[in-house]
Amino acid sequence: MIRLMFCLSCALFAAELSAADSVKVPMSPGLWEVTSRMQSDDPKITKALEEAQRAMDNMPESQRKMMQEMMQKQGVQISAGAPGETKVTMCMTEAMVNQGGMPQQQTGKCSQKTGLSGNTVNFEFACTDPVSSGTGTYVFSGDSSYTMDMKISSGTGSATQNLTLQGNGKRLSDDCGDVKPMVMPK
Q: Which residue among 59, 116, 125, 175 is least crowded, i.e. fewest CB within 10 A of its CB?
């Protein structure tokens, strides 16, 4: 269950920064920190999220280092934030910014509609494999920060799970330092 929640968090993080080809999000390249908090209406999922957070907090140093190195090879630095939060540090290159942010999640059979109005990006998506759908809004404050709110439903019938993901992103610097750009799906 912890592995599932970790993978879900990573997938949502990747989807969180995605943008449709027709929408150019107002972001500057550089080192970004994205903080997110996931919540569920299912007590079992909430408990699993809390257990995953505790497992990360209590991970032996050698395992933590191994996991961090594995994530860094993919261009992501992940750490626990405040209780219930996850922080991800990543390098946004000029190419990523020019294509409108990171590419959409490449797994599953999904469609997405995105619209830009002023400093706000609204989107909705639907996937058939795995079955999920959702809506979200990003509000940009210039090209160096944003807030985000997503509502996601996953599964069908009585097995449907509802999640909310709230967060913010802020640009830390022009220079990514030793943080490598995220490995992009092919």
A: 175
